[in-house]
Amino acid sequence: MNQKAKINIKRYENNPIITPGDVKPSRPEFKVECVFNAGVTRFEGDVLLLLRVAESAISNDKQVVKVPYYDYMKGEFVIENFDRNDPANDYSDSRYVKTPKRLYLTSVSHFRIARSKDGVNFVIDEKPAMVPANEYEMYGIEDPRITLIGDTYYINYSSISYITGVTTCLATTKDFKTFERKGVIFTPDNKDICIFPEKINGKYYAFNRPASAEYNRRDMWIAESPDLLCWGNHRYVMTARDDMWDNGRVGCSAVPFKTEKGWLEIYHGATKDNCYSLGASLHDLNDPGKVIARSTVPIIKPEEDYELYGFFGNVIFNCGVLFENNKIKIYYGAADTVMAYAEVDIDEIFKNLGV
Amino acid sequence: MNQKAKINIKRYENNPIITPGDVKPSRPEFKVECVFNAGVTRFEGDVLLLLRVAESAISNDKQVVKVPYYDYMKGEFVIENFDRNDPANDYSDSRYVKTPKRLYLTSVSHFRIARSKDGVNFVIDEKPAMVPANEYEMYGIEDPRITLIGDTYYINYSSISYITGVTTCLATTKDFKTFERKGVIFTPDNKDICIFPEKINGKYYAFNRPASAEYNRRDMWIAESPDLLCWGNHRYVMTARDDMWDNGRVGCSAVPFKTEKGWLEIYHGATKDNCYSLGASLHDLNDPGKVIARSTVPIIKPEEDYELYGFFGNVIFNCGVLFENNKIKIYYGAADTVMAYAEVDIDEIFKNLGV
User: Fold this and answer.
1) Based on the structure, what is the number of domains in chain A?
2) Does the CB of A224 have a partner CB in chain B at under 8 Å?
3) What is the CATH number of the domain that holds A27?
4) Full residue range of the structural domain in which residue B40 is found
5) B4 within a domain of the structure (yes/no)
6) What is the phi/psi pair of residue A33, to 5°?
7) How far apart are CA B72 and CA B136, in angstroms?
8) Which of A7, A82, A141, A241 is least buried, going by the fewest C-beta atoms within 10 A?
9) Is B183–A233 a contact, with Cβ atoms under 8 angstroms apart?
């Protein structure tokens, strides 16, 4: 595969824009490992990022792997210790501890707010905006997407728990101070939900990415809703393509936005060996389940050091964009470690899509 | 484990009540392998079973395994041939052909109507009521549940396809002659959906059994709906129990019915080595997500030859019951091959539940 992204996309020269060192740990016993995959919106004139902050438990002994998670029965965070030399456990993927009995995550994620006037220099809150709080969120809350409808910001996110798997939950806010949880909106395993910002023919829509264990599928689907809480009429939308940049799996990434040519979705695709890039797909204005066009070369793929190396390298992944003055402003997680920024003209995307 | 079901349950003396030989194949090139896991209701005074009929493609050469499925692009059934001696393929489970590229089912299921005046002697339709018809149903439609609400029968069923995994679809009928498809109501993998027969505090409810690939979960959940089409507020209800008859996995089986002590669900539990039995769970009348009691010994488990031996032996599985005159009339699939019948007084179930 030798697909060169010839698109004219401009990375910010001082990337990355936010790194783990910029974020204060939420607890003294935690260390910030990653700040990435932020939800994006404008709030009170600022660019507001809802950062995913992944923290590990500090271990002073290299032979002891500490795993933090939220114990919903106790109502507090607990830390379990694992012996790195225990041959029964698998530590080969930096993100997991796989024991014979249970899968653990080596970090637990929460959400933190960052604000910027110029879109690249951010002031980051000292304290979390949302932290794990129930049995669905024991292993953390991840990858938020923000959709503004009316005066309410709808935030959906992946909730991870060994009891309930990977579900998607909804929360709402009007002020980014208080957040109201609205429960689980998609059953496990389903994540990468992107809610459209307006009704289409009287219905709300959301892209989603259910996983079929039995048939080994991880594809993009679309769902409809009367109220944003209950979802149905699920339809299969698109899948990985052989011999393309997205031959491993695909999922929705950014909240879609409207253009004169259709709904535009910036989605993520991975190769079979887990290189994550971003591409675009264009969807019918009246029936967004219909795909009009799709990137045959990615609009951005891992090339810079901060994209190639990190907690989980070779990854560009995003949860939102701003579409302003015909520019797509992409805030993305790089190497599952830092936040970076790039921008691209909408016409470049249309050229990339051949429309 | 030595749990003897001491409950007084009465199997019909001439079980099984329907066998594959009683069912006419839907096509000349097909053979009926199994008739099981029927949806159950009363219609025009009769007991009506919506049978799941699983058919294989007839092979005259033992070295050739023929796999039938519905090709939605062609709009017709096709048959693929596999060499039984091909070491790349796995034929060890009678239900599957596992090739390196794809998982196939060795049979394809449709629905057939059977009617009875006395509840045990059935007249079976010559032709199918519903057959696979779209991309979600390529590998068949399975395990229907029937819920009567108002004058409409709501039929939900598992739709199997290598493209879309295991989804649950909804169809409606008023006459059991024409069936209107209402689309996918739960994303993959999710099956064993049981819709409650009435609204509770203004909302419809359904038990369901999503599968988490990542965290290896297969548990009972509950969902709410304003319209039976869109579902949300998903909540985790109950899981397998160590050292019990349901220590492998659990799922909802029969459409729940109301008693003075709560909503009663006849659910299936499997041991870790795939012995499927039925038990009962009692749920709060106002909040059916709350479990009041649960069988510590099954109400029925595989003991008879027709339950122990068959296409997939050691299985009792049901999709519906009739609750009439304080009797629970259980129509169940046995050994994934035949339909059988048993009945039990509600008081026996309450005793079993200790309520």
Assistant:
1) 1
2) yes
3) 2.115.10.20
4) 10-353
5) no
6) -95, -35
7) 9
8) A241
9) yes
